[in-house]
């Protein structure tokens, strides 16, 4: 429905997603992998350089990120998915920091004012969010 309201000309989609490192398929032990880490998956029309290694087979992407990327592939919209594999369940600053290299990408560069302040801002946002997520009995 979101794409139905948008013009497809000059559209480029970037999807950010996280999933458990246990879902990552590799020959080596996942215990030796530096967590969190990024992998990318892109449509055929996405011509820019990605900010991390591409996702290897037999790894798969699920749910909404997969649906968005599939839609973009079918409708020939340039799109890239950045999948962060992490060993934590709840989003934290370390996991978000894994996305930091994307701030220098061509498409996201114009949205960023000051990269040096990003860590401080992220910590503040997460601290505020944690306060709202607490259940008091």
TrEMBL record:
Q: Which InterPro entries match?
A: Proteasome_assmbl_chp_1 (IPR016565)
- What GO biological process terms does the UniProt entry carry, in alphabetical order? proteasome core complex assembly
- GO CC, one annotated term: proteasome complex
Transmembrane residues, as ranges?
A: none
The molecular function terms in GO held by this entry are:
proteasome binding
| Coiled-coil ranges per UniProt | none
Q: Which UniProt keywords apply?
A: Chaperone, Proteasome
Q: Does the keyword Acyltransferase apply?
A: no
Instruction: Establish whether keyword Chaperone is in the entry.
Output: yes
- Record-stated family: Belongs to the PSMG1 family.
Protein's name in the database: Proteasome assembly chaperone 1
* Organism this protein belongs to: Pygoscelis adeliae
């Amino acid at each position: 429905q979101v794409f139905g309201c948008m013009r497809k000309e000059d559209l480029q989609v970037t999807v950010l997603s996280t999933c458990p490192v246990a879902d990552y398929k590799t020959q080596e032990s996942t215990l030796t992998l530096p967590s969190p880490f990024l992998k990318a998956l892109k449509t055929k029309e996405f011509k820019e350089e990605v900010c991390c290694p591409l996702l290897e087979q037999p790894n798969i992407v699920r749910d909404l990120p997969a649906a968005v990327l599939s839609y973009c592939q079918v409708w020939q919209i340039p799109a890239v998915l950045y999948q962060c594999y992490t060993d934590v369940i709840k989003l934290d600053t370390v996991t978000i920091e894994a996305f930091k290299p994307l701030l220098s990408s061509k498409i996201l560069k114009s949205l960023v004012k000051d990269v040096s302040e990003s860590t401080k801002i992220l910590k503040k946002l997460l601290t505020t969010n944690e306060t709202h997520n607490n259940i008091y009995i």
